[in-house]
Amino acid sequence: MFASRPVVHPMEVAAPAPAPAAANQAQQQQQPQQQPPGVLMKDLPGMPGTPSGLALRVTQLLLAAISLAAMSSTSDFASVSAFIYLIAAAILQCVWSLSVAIVDIYALLVKRCLRNRRLVTLFFIGDMITCAGTFSGACAAAGITVLIDNDLNICSENHCSSFQTAVAMGFMCSFCIAPSFMLNFWSVASTRVLAA
Amino acid sequence: MFASRPVVHPMEVAAPAPAPAAANQAQQQQQPQQQPPGVLMKDLPGMPGTPSGLALRVTQLLLAAISLAAMSSTSDFASVSAFIYLIAAAILQCVWSLSVAIVDIYALLVKRCLRNRRLVTLFFIGDMITCAGTFSGACAAAGITVLIDNDLNICSENHCSSFQTAVAMGFMCSFCIAPSFMLNFWSVASTRVLAA
Predict the structure, then answer these.
(1) Could you give the angle at the alpha carbon of B191 between the alpha carbons of A116 and B118, nearest 5°?
(2) Across all residues in chain A, what is the average pLDDT?
(3) Fewer CB within 10 Å: N-end or C-end of chain A?
């Protein structure tokens, strides 16, 4: 089973139905281009293999990289476990987003469709893990940052602005993964229903 | 449009197809019982209106209540913003889980089916908000608890065991909402595809 396949143009199916005789003829002509079972016809914006999907991945990569850079630029991040966890989550996010972005670029260049059920399930699981990791890291670091800034008021002794930047970028990154995760889950659910 | 409707037994549809003439007759007889468009036939365990769905809600309610009780039993929770946020998220979770549990009990008692598209979308949005709230509250409180316990080693001056219990229950609660959220999203995606 191939992981990708040539793009099938969905607009032909959505066109108004021709007369019955012509329809039969057209159906026979289109036979070799038919969708394999369990594959969605619609290519929603943001799904893997689309330009907007690639844009989402690049945005995630940039935001995770900024979060990682802002946090690791501080000298005392190693003394707080939550900050180390955010750095680890941001590194994982960078690796994952870069990998999927490379697959997206390949798919766009050779015009292959990535709406394969196994591939979409893999993307969904990867997105779920990285989304949960980045979001939990950002939340934990936000808890510490608010404690330092608002509760204890010891910002003068710490790099509060760097911590805040890292946390904000971590949250924005996890909000950027959410659409990819949702669209992949939607795609998995739809293909399962259509295949049933 | 009614939010609930009488249960339609899906086994009749899954039965082997009778002869064509008998099938037409049976179809005419079954006309009043047909599914409205955009409603899933399958009732997966854990969905609203099923006994396992009710069990999930009751578990969420209990875990959120334990987390709330453990955190609010400490005398110094009000000095840390993350702990106050966890308490607020646990209260919201209790209210939401109790409300949906009451709807589930009603649906089970009067044997109504809750697989209506609007109702499932409402459950999905509510689950998403409460799941994100409880998970982020647990993460933020976990960051502070790990800071107190591992990084600063000042557990002797704080109620570490209560904080740890509250955080653990918060995490378990958010892991209990995840199946409800996923199943409702699956149901929304499936009904949209079937209705399209």
Answers:
(1) 140
(2) 80
(3) N
At B74, list the tokens. Answer: 């400490």
Residue A169: closest CA among A36, A45, A70: A70
Closest CA to A92 of A55, A139, A122, A134: A134
CB contact under 8 A, B147 and A82: yes
3-state secondary structure of A93: helix
Contact B153/A at CB under 8 A: no
Measure the CA–CA gap between A53 and A45, rounded to whole angstroms: 7
| Chain A environment of B141 (Cβ under 8 Å) | 143
Residue spans of beta strands (DSSP E) within chain A: 5-6, 112-113
Distance from the Cα of B49 to chain A's closest Cα (Å) equals 20
Are B64 and B71 spatial neighbours (Cβ–Cβ below 8 Å)? Answer: no
3-state secondary structure of B152: coil
Select from B81, B186, B193 the Cβ nearest to the Cβ of A146.
B81
**ipTM for the assembly:** 0.74
Residues B179 and B46: beta-carbon distance below 8 Å = yes
Give tens-digit pLDDT for A53-112: 899 999 999 999 999 999 999 888 888 899 999 999 999 999 999 999 999 999 989 888
Q: Is B61 exposed, middle or buried (0-12, 13-18, 19+ CB in 10 A)?
A: buried
What value does the CA radius of gyration of chain A take, rounded to a whole number of Å?
22
A147 CA: distance to closest CA in chain B (Å): 6
Spatial distance between the Cα atoms of A6 and A35, rounded to a whole number of angstroms: 10
What are the CA-CA distances from residue B99 to residues A46, B48, B68, B110 (Å)? 35, 12, 18, 17
**Dihedral sign, CA of A49, A54, A60, A65?**
positive
Q: How close does chain B come to A158, measured CA to CA in Å?
A: 15
> Chains A and B: how many Cβ contacts under 8 Å?
74
How far apart CA A116 and CA A3 sit, in angstroms, is: 6
